[in-house]
Amino acid sequence: MAEEKIKKVSIIISKGSLEGVYPGLIMANGARMEGIEANVFFTFFGLEAIIKKKMDKLKVATVGNPAMHIPSILGILPGMSAFATKMMKKEMEKLDIPPVSEFIEMIHDAGGKLYACKATVDMFHLTKDDFCDEVDDIINVAKFYEVAAGGQIIFT
C-alpha cells in the first residue's frame, strides 16, 4: 500500500518569542521546499513576526520557560532575555538560519501564503500598513478554515 503524502499544511503561530515563531517558519519553509502547499496564520502575539517594526527584534522568553534550565527568578534579571536572545541568534547564525524578516520573505517567495488574524489585528488596533509586504491578507477564522480545508493544521 502506497503512503499518502501530505499535500497542504496550515500552520498557526500564536507566540511572539523567538522560540515561539521559528518552529512555524521552519515548518512552513520545509513544506515549500518539499512542494507542499503552506499557509501560515499569525494570531495573538505571533503577529510580532510580521509587524515591520518588531519582526527582527523578537526575544527569547526567559521567565517561565523550563527549557531554559534556570530558575525563573533569574529570568527576570535585567538583561537576561537580551543575553539569551544573543546566544540563541549566535547559534542560529552558525546553522545559517536567517533572521525572521528574511525567513518570511523566503517562505513568501517560495509560494507560501501568510495571513494575519483579523480579530487580533482589530484587538491590537493594527492596520495592513503595520505588516511586512509579504503578508497576503488579514483574514478571520472562518476564512482560515476555508484556506486550510483538505490539509493538515499545525499549531505551534
UniProtKB/TrEMBL annotation:
Protein name stated in the entry: Peroxiredoxin family protein
Pfam entry (one): DrsE_2
Gene3D superfamilies: DsrEFH-like
Source organism (scientific name): Caldithrix abyssi DSM 13497
Keyword Membrane (UniProt): yes
Transmembrane segments: 67-85
PANTHER family in the cross-refs: CONSERVED WITHIN P. AEROPHILUM, PEROXIREDOXIN FAMILY PROTEIN
Cross-referenced SUPFAM superfamilies: DsrEFH-like
Cleavable signal peptide: none
Coiled-coil portions: none
Keywords for the protein's UniProt record, in alphabetical order: Membrane, Transmembrane, Transmembrane helix
